[in-house]
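Predict structure. Chain length: 524.
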Amino acid sequence: MNLSPELSASGRLGVVAAAFPAAAHAGAAMLRRGGNAIDAACAAAWALGVCEPAESGLGGQTTMLIRLADGRCTVVDGHSRAPAGLSRKIVKRAQQDYGVTATTIPSTPATLEFAQRRFGTLAPAEAIAPAIELAENGYRITALQRRLIRWSVRFFAPGSPEAALLLGPGNAPPKVGEVFRQPMLAATLRRISEQGAGDFYHGQIARDIVAHMSEQGGLVTAQDLADLGLPVVREPLAIEHGSHRVLSVPPPGGGVQALLALRLLGGLWHAGESDAAWQLAVTQATFIAFRERERWPDHPKDVTPSLAKWLVGPERAAKLIADFHAGKMNEPVEDTSGESGNTTHLCVADAAGNVVSLTQSIQSVFGSKTVHPRLGFFYNNYLSASPRTAHPYRLGPGSLPQSNAAPTIVLDGAGVPRLALGSAGSRRITTSVVRVLSAVLDRGQSLAAAVAAPRAHPLLSRAVWSERSLGSAAHTLIAEKQGPVTLLSDLNYKLGAVQAVAIDPSSGFTGAADPRRDGAVVVA
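Prediction complete.
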């Protein structure tokens, strides 16, 4: 097995594309031990929680789209929910962003263990082992991680648990290349490995969480943890796109807007048109999809099979395109989710035909900015995504925060998996996923080229963020037809981070990691 991490690599037996090299290695190690793609994905996900504490971890949530070797496709929906004792009187608006008052019930441990027990072939302890080793022995800090820690220093008071974990003398962030060890997190992971994820919800870890919540004024109780239950298994959403079938996740995830935007794109751009015209069409398609989600958000309890089909169907897309061209989408729309939020993603494929696309997050950079002082992980701040106005995802007891996570898998006409991808970056997940999908499926770009290509992202205000190298022709057209363009540096952190794998029966597996962050591909 070739264990050298690259931004793009090919192999014959399997591939892991993850947002950090050590996590990709952890997944590849499971394939080498005879595990399947689900085992590898879970190992990589546990490891990402160690190597990317700013993006994910035990205090967050995980969602997986799985295509099994027997052809079945399923969603393991690990979206978290608010504590039962939450109310708008108890939690003020300012408390939804930072601190333990912003935290939903963490679901990542339950989701990863459930998925591996249900669909994997190795013991869960085998998948956790690389993460324990990484936490105990450490990994080297990257330039991106140093930058994220420097940006977050203002939230970490000198002498606080957060400062003790992340900062050195004088509240200074670690240097690039410095080895970062997390012994408390290693002990927590070891306990989960030995006792099972149930300990996080019913055992000593649960008691430690509840004690800290009580100390800090948090709302997650022993009953909240005990009542979380297993993740929900759902049917994926799907659309036909040319000769392919594209699958993604239903609400509360972001699959609706990703698939709707891809369908809209087919009515806004046609093969043979210029690159600038394609860039404009992708920008317009994603803008329309975002706008419609804000106007007509859909809660999972309301999404029947027939409604799910309509949400991403051709009739709705045709009506939206007609309304857009008629100038009916210029009135202001309240933005309930903003552009904040960060995430991580990984994809795995194995020789048996199993494919996994997995997104996990603690919401903002370092989540709630609060670490458990004895367990070593950051809590999420998903309540920041819950509006206080009338809305299906309105802040309240047991409420579900809305998510942009859009793990995606593409099948050919015979149902054979050809591509899996997803992204980090809140709303930029949709723009990143749609751009890469269309570049590969519609324009014939290689996967690596599509992942690294310049991007633009529309805001609900109609303004557009764009990397400079998108090109002056595209910028001029977008400014004329969509809205003012704000130029960003190339390979910009703000514009998402795609991890993807492609499967070709004749040539094997290819992975691609986004150069905008610390991703890597390891092949078998």
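Summary: Residues 32-65+76-233+362-385 form one domain.
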